[in-house]
Task: structure prediction
Amino acid sequence: MPSIIIYKKIKKKYLNQLNINIKKLEKMKKYLLTFALGVMSLTAFAQSNYEKVMTEKITKLEACKSTDEFQTLANDFDRIAKKETTQWLPSYYAAFSYIQKGRLLMRQGKITDLSVQANAAFNYLDAAEKIAGNDNSEIHLLKKMAYSLKMMENPAERYMTDGVKAIEELKIAEKLNPNNPRVFLIKAEDTYFTPEQYGGSKAKGLEQFKTALDKFNAFKTKTLLDPNWGKSEAEYFLSQGPVK
Result:
């Protein structure tokens, strides 16, 4: 009998302890669930804020009309890139800002500073590529544009260096994404501004702009922040009408 009593006491104590442990586990599960939901909420908020800021800056980028505005946005994207170290797009758009600034300088006849803008763009493109990988058509296309910009500082001397690299980068960009409308846009620009004796012409360029516009009309970005620039440029050149 005493052994039965002892067994019952031990059993009761064990069951009480088990119940206590179960309650502790339930509390721990609730705590972990609450913590996980909190982390998810903060992550979602941070992502939402990132997308909001990026959307705002990208919209401004499309409306820029001066070198100062492009520089301001390049600085803004630089700050975002330093905060969002796992995102490649801030560095991409910082590079694009410098390239657009350089292209504007070129149109204004200020060619002595083109290498500075191109080299700044290359720094950001290297940063973007470290995150996105080297198989990104959009990044290679900007490299093409940066090399072309650098070449235009002294075309006669730099065609065989920067000019050739620009051609190589364009081929890579097209190979990685044969339907990238920006590839067709830049090819059209090259043809449009290249003299006939070197294989270009405005008439050929306009035909290529038509192709680029068709590609833009069929193109869909994966996210709202992905590169989607260029359609308005194709439309602008085509709005000039046929070459007389």
